[in-house]
Design brief:
The longest helix is centred in the first third of the chain and has 18 residues, at 52-69. The strands form 3 sheets. An 8-stranded mixed β-sheet has the order 6-7-5-8-4-9-10-13, sandwiched between helices. It is of the alpha/beta class. It has 12 helices and 13 strands. Helix content is 35%, strand content 19%. It folds into 2 domains: 6-79, GMP Synthetase, Chain A, domain 3; 106-350, Rossmann fold (3-Layer(aba) Sandwich). Helix 4 crosses helix 12 (336-350). It binds adenosine-5'-triphosphate and magnesium ion. The site of adenosine-5'-triphosphate has 19 residues, from helix 4 and helix 10. Residues 121-122, 145, 150, 221 line the site of magnesium ion.
């Protein structure tokens, strides 16, 4: 009988789909190692989920498939088993770039996401971008929100990008940020039902067809929610990690959890939770007033075991700054909101924004 190789097994396992996703379990990155000892074959799995039902289902499928294909072998499927030397290095399971091609010149890509709409994702994206630039990073900003070009408005961008002699799109530069928007390729008359499919096709190409130059970090403002469009965008963008934006209401926790699960399932690191519209300052005393209750964001972060990146106050000036095309961090360096954004930027850097980059 011809000797079975690890590659044979991996090829066989490619016929098993990761539950709930298009990808097979090998592509998804959960097969950590395969080893042989006599007629014993051990498949070692490494998950980024705690979903016991999912694990049991995958294990059963592997077991059945390998048992039937290799009846002479005793097949063991294990999780968290220490990897034995197989000659080749085991695949890097937690590498968020695995299977996603990096964008040339771009060191790290950070998604700003939320479980639901209207929580201030675009406000956070623009201000965080400027705050990161103030920390000395070269920053790009990509608006992949297909339902409205809010970043163009918030950054005060009226023109469309040009094309350079290499036929690459030139990002529009403002406040030291290189900006590009999915809105540029979508006509305002494009029906909403076409937007999802169009973007799914275009996003990867689009990211690479832009002359980003050298960037330390690119911020990607995702469309709100965790539906197919978001999922597909996340899968097609070579993300280093994500920041989840929420609001203090108790009900928001469910949405944060859903957002978090989406990244977890895709093996994408979550840098932490930002709570927006946390409090407003009493106009006479200046004291913070927590209208929706205090501590929702930190509680969510704690539950998900990710850092809490800070609370952004609700300030009329933030909304006005957004409407006027000059984000608050650029407009008013002294405001409490600016300080909060700056602090969040520092924490994301401290959490390894630049170290998590593919080598
Ligand atoms: N901290 C804040 N204080 C005051 N207004 C805010 C604050 N954050 C956001 N806003 C305002 O709330 C509205 C929604 O914010 P934003 O567009 O950033 O949310 P979003 O999550 O990106 O929304 P969408 O889901 O539609 O993409 C905007 O008008 C914005 O100016
Ligand atoms: Mg938005």
């Amino acid at each position: 009988m011809a000797e079975i190789s690890k590659e044979d097994i991996l090829l066989t396992l490619r016929s098993i789909q990761y539950p709930g996703y298009k990808e097979d379990i090998v592509t998804f990155g959960i097969v950590n190692d395969v080893k042989f000892q006599g007629n014993r074959m051990t498949v070692n799995l490494k998950y980024n989920t705690q979903d016991a039902e999912l694990k049991a289902s995958v294990k059963k499928q592997i077991q059945e498939l390998l048992n039937s294909k290799y009846p002479d072998h005793r097949v063991m499927v294990m999780e968290g088993f220490p990897t034995l030397e197989m000659g080749a290095a085991p695949p890097k399971q937690n590498d968020p770039w695995a299977g996603r091609k990096p964008i040339p010149g771009v060191k790290s890509v950070l998604a700003v996401a939320s479980g639901k709409g209207g929580v201030g994702k675009s406000t956070v994206s623009t201000n965080l971008a400027i705050a990161l630039a103030k920390e000395g990073l070269k920053v790009g900003l990509m608006d992949s929100d297909i339902y409205g070009p809010s970043i163009q408005i918030m950054m005060g961008i009226g023109q469309k990008p040009g094309v350079n002699e290499d036929r690459k799109l030139e990002p529009i530069e403002k406040f030291g940020i290189k900006m590009m928007s999915m809105g540029f390729i979508l006509d305002k008359d494009t029906p909403v039902i076409w937007r999802g499919p169009m973007v799914n096709k275009a996003v990867e190409q689009f990211l690479r067809d832009v002359d980003w130059g050298e960037l330390d970090v690119m911020i990607v403002d995702l469309p709100p929610g965790t539906g197919d469009v978001q999922l597909s965008l996340v899968q097609k963008t070579p993300l280093t990690g994500a920041v989840i934006v929420t609001t203090p209401q108790e009900v928001a926790l469910v949405d944060v959890r859903r957002g978090f699960q989406m990244f977890r399932k895709l093996n994408i690191h979550v840098f932490g939770v930002v709570e927006n519209m946390s409090y407003y300052s009493n106009p006479t005393s200046g004291e913070p007033v927590y209208i929706f209750g205090k501590g929702g964001g930190p509680k969510a972060a704690q539950e998900l075991q990710v850092p809490f990146l800070g609370e952004i106050p609700i300030e009329q000036e933030i909304a006005e700054a957004g409407d006027s095309g000059i984000p608050i961090v650029a407009k008013n360096p002294e405001s409490a909101a600016t300080r909060a954004f700056q602090e969040a930027a520092k924490r994301i850097i401290a959490e390894g924004l630049l170290e998590r980059v593919a080598k």
